[in-house]
């Protein structure tokens, strides 16, 4: 039996992004059954232009105005999403035409309901690029923060979503930019509204809790672009402070298993502080960090 899909978009002051994403929703080969827009903007988006673009009746679109944090907004959307599947999509993404067809078919083939959540593959990530991303990846690897794009949690409780795979791949963390869940399962877990600041890490937290009981998957055929609009994002200093607070809460809830994990967590905290320095001097120290992260491999060919 076909599963119904509700798209939830949590946004603030990004009207152009919302309309661009809505355009990609209108071109889906399998159209979502409902769209919920949780809008914290001073001038919220209205129904009419969205319904015109989607060519749907007003009953298929629900707009929830009012100030809220990202975890609060996700929960408001979850409560309003009266469908089998609830898909949280960032406002600054663009989905390929068969995104929801791939996602829905994967869930429909899961007769045992072992899968609670999936993500698609972001096609415009800077994989292996020199410069800032390379330096940050090196820093993350050395300080128990995350390996670039492996989709598994480290001992410190940090992670980064999987970047590429040749087929459906089991992961322990989903990308907050695009993640789809069985709604009845997610209603039991919900997003942690105690997370505060600019980088909430609510996607890591809910992934950690879900992955202890259910399977999570990366689907490379569900493709999208993440354009990473900079408006309403925190500064680097504010982001690191937010990371520190929320990472501590996430670690204590989900990963504090003994002395080894606590040591890894403390090392990761030092790494987060170093992010501030790297952001300011990335051009100078990026190549050095990359060399350190490669360890003792020696010269090429040895």
- What is the overall pLDDT average? 87
Structural class: alpha/beta
Instruction: Estimate what percentage of residues fall within beta strands.
Output: 15-25%
The gross shape turns out to be globular
> Kindly, what is the distance between the CA atoms of the first and last residues, rounded to a whole number of angstroms?
56 Å
Residue runs with pLDDT of under 50 for 5 or more positions: 296-302
The largest sheet, given as strand count, sense and whether it forms a barrel, is: 9 strands, mixed
Quote the CATH topology of the domain at 5-125 and 163-231: Spore Coat Polysaccharide Biosynthesis Protein SpsA, Chain A
Record field, number of beta strands: 9
Proportion in helices: 40-55%
CATH superfamily of the domain at 5-125 and 163-231: Spore Coat Polysaccharide Biosynthesis Protein SpsA, Chain A
Number of helices: 9
Briefly, what CATH class of the domain at 5-125 and 163-231? Alpha Beta
The assigned CATH architecture of the domain at 5-125 and 163-231 is: Alpha-Beta Complex
